[in-house]
Amino acid sequence: MTTMTTRTVEYPADGLTMSGHLALPAGVDRRPAVLLGPEGMGLSDVERRRADTLAELGYIALAFDLHGGRYLGDPEEMLARCLPLLADPDRMRGIGHAALDVLRTEPRTDPDRIAAIGYGTGGAVGLELGRDGVNLRVIGTVNATTTGRPGEAARIRCPVWAGVGSEDPIMPPAQRNAFTAEMQAAGVDWRLVVYGGALHAFHHPPVDHPTVPGVGYHPQHAQRAWRDVVDLLAECLPVTEDLRA
């Protein structure tokens, strides 16, 4: 693990001034990069710590913003913003592209080696970048088995990994089946991991405000899902790439 540094980056998206968290590993060389998307509540210290951990592993990591620097702890306010957003692929792509531009602008980012990892709404944004044909090495999502507009999954150019809780009422079996059917029909290299007994947002530590029904922390599966994400990056976006391969 390497020493890392962080800074806040502001950029426009979705008619707002977004405030992302950029984490950089030690050194001056170019590195693979990870675009990290938060749950619907928005960017919090949970995602910032994940970005920091990825930087310690050697990645450039940008935890991006969804709500113009705000964290939406009120479930009704969060749903009022996220449900229309999730129904509008173009808005999600706009948010994703704006953050991706920031990540690519960082001089140490290798623009040909970028992954999108996201949770909930942030994962849906990553999937929409894939459906928009963005050159990514891998897309990984937790709690985001969202489907897109017909036929657009064929534009995904990288493997897709999805993790979901078996008891998640927001991403129930019918939704999971629709997602995997879309990926299969498009010829995507896809994987789905179902974490037994887990609810929605099972990866997110408990919060001190109300949440929507069906949300619950599962410490064991949270650790497993994070290890699965790190292993996914090691497979599809290794920090050190053998250019002779």
What attributes characterize this protein structure?
245 residues; alpha/beta; Rossmann fold; eight-stranded mixed β-sheet; 6 helices; 34% helix; globular; FrsA_esterase; hydrolase; hydrolase activity; Dienelactn_hydro; AB_hydrolase_fold
Strand order of the largest sheet: 1-2-4-3-5-6-7-8
Q: What is the domain tally?
A: 1
Q: CATH-wise, what's the superfamily?
A: Alpha/Beta hydrolase fold, catalytic domain
Bin the strand percentage: 15-25%
Summarize model confidence as the mean pLDDT.
Answer: 96
Q: How many strand units?
A: 8
Low-pLDDT runs of 5+ residues are none
Instruction: Characterize the main sheet.
Output: 8 strands, mixed
What is the CATH first-level class name?
Alpha Beta
User: SSE order, as H and E?
Assistant: EEEHEHHEHEEHEH
Oligomer: single chain
**Shape verdict:** globular
Per CATH, what is the topology?
A: Rossmann fold
> What is the helix content?
25-40%
What is the count of helical runs? 6
Rounded to the nearest angstrom, the distance between the terminal CA atoms is 25 Å
Question: What is the compact description of this entry?
Answer:
Keywords: Hydrolase. This protein is α/β, with parallel strands linked by helices and 245 residues long.
